[in-house]
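FAQ

Q: What does a record look like?
A: Structure on top, sequence underneath. For example:
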């Protein structure tokens, strides 16, 4: 059997660990031949392949990024895209695909599986917002990077009696903000799921200073003010999946707090630092297990499924279950962090 592997969407620590596990078990246990498709769905769409054997996977376990490259190409947005994918898979002698990606990449996999393409999915995103799985790999690394940044920013906030606003990733879900905010002892965590009241935020800033502490506010990039007063800045640009490029809430918030409270406020935007570099041990462990189970699913003909972490077990769930609905932070989970606000 010949199996194609691709990685799509934003890069994420642990992608190479999945690829390595798929290849090692695919070759050693199942006797498969693997082929790499370059740059997400652009690979099968345009027939861009690369050799993918045990040799290409040496030394990649701790490396960030993806040796296959990535893109946000959406074959359903391209005239005749699905047919071109079918033709290229046939021309490359590829019988099945392992697609490693988030909401968008696996959304394409879901639709292709419904159209009869043999595909197995592996959930990836630092945002941890895919349903069906307890965690996605990449999230733990992002949370650790954000937590270290918050730890370091505490010292400047305290020494200079400043408000520090830390903007982290999270377009629709505040998981990174919530986990790093709790771990880093933030005095406020603002997430997309819970629109915030700027007056309340400023009141808690004042309280924090009164108790001789300096406020650290962790804000997810997709957080919005409750009254929708336009504090979120967007560039207006959209990607192939129609997502608006976000950015700017941290700076806007810092300016607003400074103007309303008279306290000096600065913003730090962590951006792609959260996705870069070497994965944590947890992410390497999870990514490796996802890869091992994904290639077993191919061997069993369990197409249209996605690997999912349930407790400590890796299970197969229908792809549609992982991509149908985003997993967001509940009001109860947010309330746990609120105990420490102000
Ligand atoms: O999907 C992961 C993610 O990190 C989102 O949180 C963020 O909005 C997006 O990627 C940004 O990615 P890029 O800058 O590559 O478009």
């Amino acid at each position: 059997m010949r199996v194609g592997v691709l990685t799509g969407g934003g890069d994420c620590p642990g992608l190479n660990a999945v690829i390595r596990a798929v290849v090692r078990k695919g070759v050693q246990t199942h006797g498969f031949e693997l082929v790499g498709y370059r740059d997400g769905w652009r690979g099968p769409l345009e027939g861009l392949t690369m050799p993918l054997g045990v040799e290409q996977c040496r030394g990649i376990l701790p490396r960030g990024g993806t040796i296959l490259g990535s893109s946000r190409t959406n074959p359903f947005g391209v005239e005749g895209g699905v047919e071109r994918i079918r033709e290229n898979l046939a021309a490359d002698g590829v019988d099945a695909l392992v697609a490693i990606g988030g909401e968008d990449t696996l959304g394409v996999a879901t639709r292709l599986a419904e159209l009869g393409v043999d595909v197995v999915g592996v959930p990836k995103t630092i945002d941890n917002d895919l349903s069906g799985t307890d965690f996605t790999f990449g999230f733990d690394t992002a949370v650790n990077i954000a937590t270290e940044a918050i730890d370091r920013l505490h010292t400047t906030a305290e020494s200079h009696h400043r408000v520090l606003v830390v903007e982290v990733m999270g377009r629709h879900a505040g998981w990174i903000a919530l986990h790093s905010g709790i771990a880093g002892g933030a005095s406020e965590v603002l997430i997309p799921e819970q629109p915030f009241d700027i007056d309340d935020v400023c009141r808690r800033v004042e309280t924090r200073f009164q108790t001789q502490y300096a406020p650290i506010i962790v804000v997810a990039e997709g957080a919005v003010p409750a009254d929708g007063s336009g504090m979120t800045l967007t560039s207006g640009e959209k990607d192939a999946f129609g997502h608006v490029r976000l950015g700017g809430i941290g700076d806007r918030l810092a300016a607003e707090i400074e103007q309303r409270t008279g306290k000096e406020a600065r913003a730090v935007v962590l951006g792609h630092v959260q996705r870069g570099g070497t994965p944590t041990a947890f992410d390497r462990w999870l990514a490796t297990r996802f890869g091992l189970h994904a290639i077993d699913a191919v061997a069993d003909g369990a197409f249209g499924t996605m690997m999912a972490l349930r407790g400590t077990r890796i299970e197969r769930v229908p792809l549609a279950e992982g991509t149908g609905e985003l997993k967001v932070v509940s009001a109860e989970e947010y309330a746990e962090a609120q105990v420490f606000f102000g």
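Q: Is there anything notable about this one?
A: The mean pLDDT is 94.
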